[in-house]
Amino acid sequence: MTHRIAVIAGDGIGTEVMPEGLRALEAAAKRFDIDLEYRHFEFGNCDYYLEHGQMLPDDWFDQLKDFDALFYGAVGWPEKVPDHISLWGSLLQFRRRFDQYINLRPCRLMPGIKSPLADRQSGDIDFYVVRENTEGEYSSIGGKMFEGTEREVVIQETVMTRTGIDRVLKYAFDLAQTRPRKKLTSATKSNGISITMPYWDERVEEMAKKYPEVSVDKFHIDILTANFVMHPDWFDVVVGSNLFGDILSDLGPACTGTIGVAPSANINPEGTFPSLFEPVHGSAPDIAGKGIANPIGQIWSAAMMLEHLGHQEAGTAIVDAIESVLAEGDAQTLTPDLRGQGSTESLGKAIAERIAG
Ligand code: GGG
Predict the structure, then answer these.
(1) What pLDDT score was predicted for residue 183?
(2) What SS3 state is found at 77?
(3) How much distance in Å is there from the Cα of 84 to the middle of ligand 1?
(4) Distance from the CA of 200 to the center of ligand 1, in angstroms?
(5) What's the domain range around 323?
(6) Which pLDDT does position 121 carry in this prediction?
(7) Which InterPro entries did the record assign (predicted)?
(8) Does 5 share its domain with 68?
(9) CA 315, CA 306: separation in Å to the nearest integer?
(10) Is the model's pLDDT at 118 over the cut of 80?
């Protein structure tokens, strides 16, 4: 069976880490005899916007909907296009139109990486952030009034639906149930945000009744972020709204030493539409073009994609290869965010060689 992968590198370091993601995929495909077919798309980046006045062509949905997965790099180049236009014009369209309502973001302290938190060893931090991915604070409902005057007003609504909350909670509880600790933490701010967040809490309580083996903690987002830094070992599966999940899934990897290693899967669990796999990091214009971006977030996302496509063994082999190269800690191979003097390519090649076995 051939898996058809749509490849969209996007902007900035997305174009630099993508070749290393593909190199890792190729190595895994060869070793495990997996048939992958790629098609590269030149849209979904800010240069495309400058040429066409939009991030995607009108028929993007039809062009992409029959692929088995989308492999994505990063989006955004604020000097060319305001960030909210590039994001809403590309990535958020994919998430919404392909109903990728789960954003799954593993957070693990890898061997050989020094956590900025004192006394943390590999194995101490190992949890998932499950982020609601199609509604919540990321809503396009709102508007402006009296623009350009002193009475200027801007309003943007948060949208939470019972369906939207229940389906992300179900995914998170199911995941927690498969984990040894069976622990779920829910992030809200129900004291200050007095309608949507208490509603989320109610849905958590309702869902928890179906999962008696899962222990449930609820935290307000402010103290939860503090606890990510002070007690990252407390967490197992953390579920939150679109915005809170986004923040937690940057903070979590930062606690593990570098956001450069963090992967993500934007999943349509029903398989009606393709799911999308991308590093958590953005396009990082400050280091783009230097060849020093860490490719591990992209490579680990490739592992998640293979697992999603049914190739668990190949996904595990990629993660093992990442861990082995990190544990070795060769400064000539590792990128500067890992305290090395290597490049995107040197790190990507080392991992691909290890995957090949
Ligand atoms: N590779 C992911 C990426 O480019 N992220 C840019 C970003 O700002 N994303 C916001 C989000 O995930 O909601």
Answers:
(1) 98
(2) strand
(3) 11
(4) 24
(5) 1-105+261-357
(6) 80
(7) ICDH/IPMDH, IsoCit/isopropylmalate_DH_CS, IsoPropMal-DH-like_dom, TTC_DH
(8) yes
(9) 6
(10) no
Q: Probe ligand 1: pick from 91, 105, 298, max atoms within 8 Å of CB? A: 91
CA distance 298 to 280: 9
C-alpha 192 chain-centroid distance: 27
Expressed in angstroms and rounded, the spacing between residue 335 Cα and the centre of ligand 1 is: 21
Ligand 1 atom closest to the CA of 11, numbered from 1: 4
Supply the angle between the helices 296-308 and 14-32 in degrees, to the nearest 10: 40
pLDDT-above-90 percentage for the chain: 96
Q: Are 75 and 13 in contact (CB under 8 A)?
A: no
Region 176-194 average pLDDT: 97
**Ligand 1 atom having least distance to the Cα of 10:** 4
Distance 280 CA to ligand 1 centre (A): 7
Same domain, 189 and 227: yes
If phi over 0 gives left and psi between -120 and 50 gives alpha, with beta otherwise, what is residue 119?
left
Q: How far is the CA of 262 from the centre of ligand 1 (A)?
A: 12
Q: Please answer whether residues 44 and 90 qualify as being in contact, where contact means their C-beta atoms are separated by less than 8 angstroms.
A: yes
CA-CA-CA-CA torsion sign (197, 200, 204, 206): positive
Instruction: Give domain status of residue 119, yes or no.
Output: no
- Considering Cα of 133, then 248, then 125, then 300, what sign does the dihedral take? positive
Residue at a domain's end among 234, 255, 276: 255
Beta bridge pairs of residue 216: 184
Q: Are 299 and 344 in contact (CB under 8 A)?
A: no
The answer to whether residues 241 and 152 belong to one domain is yes
Choice from 87, 287, 296 to test ligand 1 binding pocket (greatest atom count within 8 A of CB): 87
- Whose alpha carbon is nearest atom 8 of ligand 1? 282
pLDDT digits (tens, 9 = 90+) for 71-92: 999 999 999 999 999 999 999 9
Q: Which atom in ligand 1 lies closest to the alpha carbon of residue 279?
A: 1
Q: Nearest C-alpha to atom 13 of ligand 1 is from which residue?
A: 246
Count of positions (residues) in the chain: 357
Cα 40 to middle of ligand 1, angstroms = 20
Residues near ligand 1 (Cβ within 6 A): 74-76, 87, 246, 278-279, 281-283
User: What global pTM score does this model have?
Assistant: 0.96
